[in-house]
Write a structure and sequence with these properties.
single chain, mainly alpha, 2 domains, 4 helices
């Protein structure tokens, strides 16, 4: 018998953080159209990288210093 959405959600929330992350990625990937051609995937990433670089250049986006990012991650996952 199939579980209800609520039951599935409750079960999923009982998983470890790592398993929940894996499940989330798996579910998100199931919504995307498959891309068979690795060259196409690479071209999409290159286009996205260029778009982000342009945003930094034109000031519509700003970067975060790596030290700040690492400090935030340390605080989030180690609580220090």
């Amino acid at each position: 018998m199939a579980q209800s959405m609520g039951e599935l959600e409750q079960d999923a929330l009982q998983l470890s953080a790592e398993d929940r992350a894996r499940l989330a990625v798996s579910l998100l990937c199931s919504l995307e159209e498959p891309v068979e051609n690795p060259v196409e995937v690479e071209n999409l990433w290159i286009t996205e990288a260029k778009r982000r670089a342009q945003q930094i250049k034109d000031g519509s986006a700003t970067g975060i210093p790596v030290a700040d990012v690492l400090a935030r991650l340390k605080f989030k996952y180690e609580g220090t």
